[in-house]
Amino acid sequence: MNPARRVLITGAGSGLGRALAFRYAEAGWRVACADIHIERARETVGLITGFGIGAMAMHVDIASDASFERLRDEVLAAWDGVDLVVNNAGVSGGGSLLTTSMDDWRWMLEINLLGVVRGCRLFGPVLTEQSAGHILNIASFAALAGAPGMAAYATAKAGVVALSEGLRADLEGSGVGVSVACPSFFQTNLLDGFRSADPTSLQIATRLMRSAKESAADIAEAIYQGVERRDFLILPTAEVRTRWRLKRWFPELYFRKLMQLVHGRRR
């Protein structure tokens, strides 16, 4: 009998990270739940041990090189390898390019972009040495949408898409797969700690999240299936896939419809 596969998930203490931890535990994977809030990671572990699967809670600050290096060392000491690395942890924010402070730009890029860079740089060599495994980076449809009012967040997530594309090319032929997921709004706690100089940004984001049809579990299921198929770009809902096709095929029509939608929501 083959040993259970092993997955490391950052930001596993809540939201999509916790939902992914549940989904992989349900599928029989061993799960390492990493989070900046170790008590939340432990809570996730406590909730998934009912599946009878080995799970462990670990601390990580993805904005810190040293913290991420310690996480890698702890994972390898416990498992001597890993089959899937999920770079999920992140923060949220809003505001236009003109109103977002440089401090907020640095905060966003340090966590949402360079946090993913750290995960790929540190675990990529582990997977290539194994000649097997997969890296899943969680971006956002904001990376592709070109919408107003989220300049720093969208730029960071667009960077995650670009680095995933480059990593996929770098690892071609190595036996290591790469996926990037771009969900839109769904029911989660991502807006905790939301930063913006414009209160309207948070109001709009809150309304969109409350009106979302999908739960974190729904998005986790779609992402799980996409990784199992080894899809590169995972667009987890039909609505997101439709909008992405419209933008690619009819960019000017997409832009007009986008701005009509934005103005309507602001009113």
How would you describe this structure in keywords?
Rossmann fold, 267 residues, single chain, 7-stranded parallel β-sheet, 13% strand, alpha/beta, 10 helices
Question: Could you describe the 3D structure shown?
Answer:
The chain has 267 residues and is α/β, with parallel strands linked by helices. The protein has a single domain (6-266), classed as NAD(P)-binding Rossmann-like Domain (Rossmann fold). The protein is built from ten helices and seven strands. The chain has a seven-stranded parallel β-sheet, sandwiched between helices. Strand 1, helix 1 and strand 2 form a beta-alpha-beta unit. Helix 1 crosses helix 8, helix 4 packs parallel to helix 6 (151-170) and helix 9 crosses helix 10 (251-266).
Structural topology:
Layout: E1 6-10, H1 15-26, E2 30-35, H2 38-48, E3 55-59, H3 65-79, E4 84-87, H4 102-130, E5 133-138, H5 142-145, H6 151-170, E6 176-181, H7 199-210, H8 216-228, E7 233-234, H9 238-249, H10 251-266
Parallel strand pairs: 1-2, 1-4, 2-3, 4-5, 5-6, 6-7
